[in-house]
Amino acid sequence: MPDYSRPMVIGVASGKGGVGKTTVSVSLAIALAERGLRVMVLDADLGLANAQLALGVRASFNMGHVLRGEKTLGEVLVDAAPGVRLIPGASGLRELASMDEAQVSSVIHVMDNLDEPVDCLLVDVAAGITPSVVSFIAACQRRFVVVCDQPASIADAYGLLKILTLEEGLEDVYLLPNMVNSQAHGRKLFNHMADVAQRFLGAKLGYLGSIERDDAVQAAQERYLPVSRHAPDSTAARSFRQLAGKVAALGPALKPSGRIQFLLPRMVGLPSATA
What we know:
The chain is of the alpha/beta class. The longest helix is centred in the last third of the chain and has 19 residues, at about 185-200. The chain is globular, with a radius of gyration of 17 Å. About 45% of the residues are buried. The protein has 13 helices and 8 strands. Helix 8 (about 150-165) links the parallel strand 6 and strand 7. Strands 3-4-2-5-1-6-7-8 form an 8-stranded mixed β-sheet, with helices on both faces. Helix 1 crosses helix 12 (about 235-250). It has a single domain, classed as 3-Layer(aba) Sandwich (Rossmann fold).
């Protein structure tokens, strides 16, 4: 078992909406928790509330209340599943949907106030390539870019990869094919995009497996449940458990980047801001 004295911080992104990014975030969180990890999900798509819907929980407060000084971070945390805690985004708040650099920095620094143990922080960012999305992803240790085998998804994922790797110089970028027909199909999609990224961006992408298409995912969403709760023996649930095993094996990693980073005091062995 890897050493989790320092947390893993993983950003989950996508070039476009509708590719299952939030489903991936929450399902991976639950699968990691099933392995005994203490997991926290930050809904960094702060203008919406998709993560709490996907987890089937209601949140009275959200990160907006923390940023306005109305609540502490601990007061907005929600128990979403055994071993999984959620920091909710807001719903329909324009000021949080279009954050500037200072506001993004505030969110990242607020996380230093977390005063409970966490083995893995999953940061579910908004879809697209806005500056706030890039800043959130850059503040993570590893980046997962979710992609489907559709022309629009592939094109937008490539655009995001270009910004993250070529323009921002970020490493530890993984491509995660979602809703593929088989693991072989997902591997073929990854190989194609990895080859293009290597040739045109000079980037080496990581691969930890794919999530197979499964009608159980849609059925779970209609019931506001993660697929692992709705259909634990489904193909998709098994795919997430396999992914969680590979993610857990990675363990934490910290490569100083000169940027602000989530949970940086913990990474370097300092006490939290509330300690």
